[in-house]
Design a protein that fits this description.
- With about 350 residues, this protein is an alpha/beta fold.
- It has 2 domains: about 130 residues; about 160 residues, Rossmann fold (3-Layer(aba) Sandwich), CATH 3.40.50.2000.
- Helices cover about 40% and strands about 15% of the residues.
- The chain is built from 16 helices and 12 strands.
- It has a 6-stranded parallel β-sheet with strand order 9-8-7-10-11-12, with helices on both faces.
- Strand 5, helix 7 and strand 6 form a beta-alpha-beta unit.
- The radius of gyration is 21 Å and the shape is globular.
- The chain starts with a strand and ends with a helix.
């Protein structure tokens, strides 16, 4: 299995809870171990491993398939574990966003989510993914079967039924990892800077020394209604305070598999305002923007925050319930186990 070796090298809870991929990798390996297989795990960055024995299955998270597929025994089933959109789409999406910031701010912001070229979807026999419809659509051209399983989460939280929605109806939060340009944080900042009556908490990998942060220094550090916290531990007191005092999460990325930061926030009862590329289902409890701009963000924020408090409570509770019913570690484990069982029975 070519995924991540981090959870095997560092078992600290803060490491395991920092991203869903750590637990997922261990659970995938555990699934095969429970069925009597021996499992070898290499990191996606490993360019030295060479198979020295035959394998029944090879799972790759889009990093080693091109190199290792020709070296595997011919009857080895090659599985693509999809975690992000096709590399061509994501790279094009990020470059488009980088150019947009360059034109707006006169600053060259480096793309940090660029993916290496690969032919994983063409080389694999089958694919499996927790990703949403948009991400899956970027691979459909290859005609390979793509099996969908539920997304997991890193944290769970109590229901938001006692939240004071009247008091906190104007508070929103952004939670994200690396790549603020790809994640369209710039558009969100511009929208909230133009709405001083609304408040935004920025929680993620944004440092003052980063080119993006320098380009948006005024919004990030000099705008009264926008507070930048940097990375925040979801298990910590600060995040508890923020989600307890916020109405929703706004996350309008240009390319994701299924945004883990949104999933965690939904577990905290935060109503999602997301782009379709985020890969998260919003049904009637959240808002999915099919076009992302300063105006559409402003419209969604204002429309949501103006709803009666009890309507907001219902949305929040339905968000929390949906997360509990669909985005859970148990659901991921069940889905992956069923996938492996069908592989063994050759039912896929």
């Amino acid at each position: 299995m070519s995924y991540t070796t981090l959870p095997y090298l560092d078992r600290r809870s803060i490491v395991l809870a920092a991203h869903t991929n750590r637990w997922e990798c261990m659970q995938m390996a555990r699934t095969f171990l429970e069925r009597g297989y021996a499992v070898d795990v290499i990191d996606t960055t490993d360019r030295a491993f060479v198979p020295s024995k035959e394998y029944t299955y090879f799972i790759d998270a889009d990093a080693n398939m091109d190199r290792l597929a020709p070296l595997l025994n011919k009857d080895c089933v090659k599985i693509f574990y999809i975690t992000h959109a096709h590399w061509k789409y994501q790279n094009e999406a990020e470059q488009k966003r980088v150019r947009a910031i360059q034109e707006k701010r006169g600053v060259d912001v480096e793309g940090v989510r660029t993916l290496s070229a690969s032919h994983t979807i063409e080389l694999c026999d089958i694919a499996v993914t927790f990703a949403g419809d948009f991400c899956v659509s970027t691979y459909e051209y290859a005609g390979k079967k793509i099996v969908r399983i539920p997304c997991s989460t890193t944290h769970e939280f109590p229901p938001p039924e006692k939240k004071d929605f009247e008091k906190f109806r104007r508070n929103f939060i952004w939670v994200g990892g690396a790549g603020p340009a790809l994640k369209r944080l710039d558009v969100i900042l511009e929208a909230f800077a133009a709405m001083p009556e609304y408040r935004l908490a920025v929680c993620g990998k944004v440092k003052p020394s980063d080119p993006f942060a320098k380009a948006y220094a005024k919004e990030l550090y000099g705008t009264e209604n926008i507070k930048t916290y940097g990375w925040v531990d979801h298990a910590g007191k600060l995040f508890k305070k923020l989600y307890s005092e916020s109405l929703g999460i706004i996350f309008v990325s240009a390319s994701e598999g299924c945004a883990g930061s949104v999933v965690v926030s939904m577990h905290a009862g935060l109503i999602p305002i997301v782009s379709r590329e985020t890969g998260v289902v919003t049904h009637d409890f959240g808002i999915t923007l099919h076009e992302v701009s300063v105006d559409t963000i402003k419209s969604a924020v204002r429309s949501l925050s103006q709803e009666p408090a009890e309507f907001l409570r219902t949305r929040s509770m339905n968000t929390w319930r949906y997360a509990r019913e669909h985005y859970m570690r148990e659901k991921f484990a069940e889905g992956f186990r069923a996938f492996v069982e069908k592989l063994e029975r050759k039912k896929l």
